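User: Show me a protein chain along with its predicted structure.
Assistant: Here is one chain, sequence first, then structure tokens.
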Amino acid sequence: MVDAIRLKKSWGLVAAHGDQVPLFFYSYLFLHHPHTREMFPVSMANQRDKLVTALGQVVSRVDDLDSVV
């Protein structure tokens, strides 16, 4: 339970950075693993939104992961 609380609190801090979060993630991914770039659409705007939304859903339901799965 304590880890779930920490995760939610940490996600709140991360999410406060808005668009910088997915930009950092995908920049790091494509820089260090360039072969993965071809797996994503040319325009990443929609993909970035999907990533943050999905992560937010998992974190918000971390107490009930069966509902996430």
